[in-house]
Design a protein that fits this description.
The structure is a homodimer.
Chain A (H helix, E strand, L loop, with lengths): L1 H8 L5 H14 L8 E2 L1 H8 L3 H14 L2 E4 L3 E4 L4 H25 L2 H17 L5 H19 L2 H13 L1 H8 L5 H17 L2 H29 L10
Helix pairs in contact in A: 2-4, 3-4, 5-7, 5-8, 5-10, 5-11, 6-7, 6-10, 7-8, 9-11, 10-11
Chain B binds a DNA duplex through helix 3 and helix 4.
Chain lengths: ~240, ~240
DNA sequence: CCTGTGTTTTTTGTATACATATATAGTGAA
DNA sequence: TTCACTATATATGTATACAAAAAACACAGG
């Protein structure tokens, strides 16, 4: 029933948005590699549309920084340097802490309950090998904290920053040794928010992000060697 | 000489970028009012280009949140609610403080000198009626602090947040009574960064933004009454 | 074998064409 | 007058056409 409504509501979706989301996902998941060219005709044929929606999607990717334009050459997938990632994580650390502290003041009972539930789900999954589900629950946990801030701008920025490192997300969750630590950090964050203890939440989120940073940087440094540079300029 | 180089370098600029910057400025300056429709053919004729570059520019404005799309109706200039502005200012406050604290650690002697110079310029202008110059110097002052962070992502986000309230910027600087206070805040910030005193800088920037918020919100509430709502749907 | 030059091919940047959906205006009936 | 319905106009969404720039290639000359 509600799916019918949903279907009616989503009945209209411009091709440009479909293309945008498709390309965006492909880049964030690493299916399109940094340096790779996005050729309009090629993508158009591949996705079964004309160049127009492709181009409009690329304009959005350009503003988001996921592709860079080379004059009269077209778009290539932006490469992320380690410095870029550190910059992102530095900002994200500050804003995640901000969100946690705001959540201490503003969280509603319903959201608090959802947060507890998400924490429990993570705990259940942490010893399995369902990395994708684990990542989803982790995202959900933090989304609830974002929502509790009641600040739409903050939510948008945090989502964007988080997505910047999406391609490394699964990678570092595969380090099962860290799951226990992640879980206890979640507990600390939840308990802190429940008590309204800003200092504790700030502390917990800070170490949470720090650990994540270390894990991601380690994954990158490890992965960097196994990649062959000449792949970058390939056509598809 | 260097202008020639500059001219050669800027020799190529896609029409879409020209259109994007033009429309962006018009929106941020309030020349295009919230609710106003952006009609492609009309803009195309006005700017002497075809619909294609107009549409591509609109896609960027859409992602930036400066326009909102209505399905099969086109783009309208996004209206900013007071809540939106408060959300922006809340995030901006946190990030400006972050930038200031980072500047305490990372600022170079050259940038510190530039900061002092910008502070002096502001002092010179504060008792004149050159509001535009005053606004520019104010922007420069903060840009130097941003640059000192050496975090490109932070710089980008802060610039974006600042631009969100560009249309109110001149308005609130016209309140000449606040100039003296702004000036002393700049001094405190400069001195704090020079000493590397994070707490002092954090404090000074916090009150700086708080005052700005109060001034802007006051300006909005005052200006709101003088606007006639039926203007919104006008064609041009 | 390498290098420089002219030609072809590919791809972008921009303009235009066409189909469809929405708004608008107009006409007639209750 | 007001409502309903149709016809018309307008604007968007998408596809295609065309020009120009860059890249790739071939070929002649050293």
């Amino acid at each position: 029933m509600s799916q019918d409504i949903n279907a009616v509501m989503n009945e209209y979706l411009p091709l440009r948005d479909v293309v945008f989301q498709t390309l965006r996902q492909a880049i964030l998941r690493g299916e399109l590699e940094p340096g790779e060219r996005l050729m309009e005709i090629h993508l158009a044929n591949r996705l079964g549309v004309s160049r127009t929606p492709i181009r409009e999607a690329i304009r959005k990717l350009e503003l988001e920084g996921l592709v860079v334009m080379i004059p009269r050459r077209g778009a290539i997938v932006a490469s992320i340097t380690e410095k870029d990632l550190q910059d992102v994580l530095e900002v994200r650390r500050t804003l995640e802490i901000m969100a946690g502290e705001m959540a201490c003041e503003r969280i509603t009972p319903e959201l608090l309950q959802q947060l507890e539930e998400a924490g429990r789900e993570f705990m259940k999954l942490k010893d399995t090998d369902e990395f994708t589900s684990l990542a989803e629950v982790d995202v959900k946990f933090h989304d609830i904290i974002y929502a509790a801030t009641d600040n739409q701008r903050l939510i948008t920025i945090l989502n964007n920053l988080r997505e910047q490192m999406y391609r490394y997300r699964l990678e570092y969750l595969k380090d099962t040794g860290s799951h226990e630590r992640l879980n206890s950090e979640h507990c600390q964050i939840y308990e802190g928010i429940k008590r309204g203890d800003k200092a504790a939440v700030s502390e917990a989120i800070g170490t949470h992000i720090d650990n994540q940073r270390d894990a991601i940087l380690a994954a990158i440094r490890k992965g960097e060697q196994s990649q062959n540079p000449e792949k970058a300029e390939k056509t598809e």
